[in-house]
Design brief:
Strand content: under 5%
Structural class: mainly alpha
Number of helices: 1
Order of helices and strands: H
Number of strands: 0
Helix content: over 70%
Length: about 30
């Protein structure tokens, strides 16, 4: 159970990083 939680947290961290990166790119593109 604990192992699964760690894996889930790692997955969520990865997703957050992807989202944050995508947002950063979108802002750069929007600002031109």
């Amino acid at each position: 159970m604990a192992q699964q939680g760690k894996r889930l947290k790692a997955a969520y961290a990865g997703i957050d990083r992807e989202k944050a990166y995508a947002l950063d790119e979108a802002v750069k593109i929007a600002k031109g």
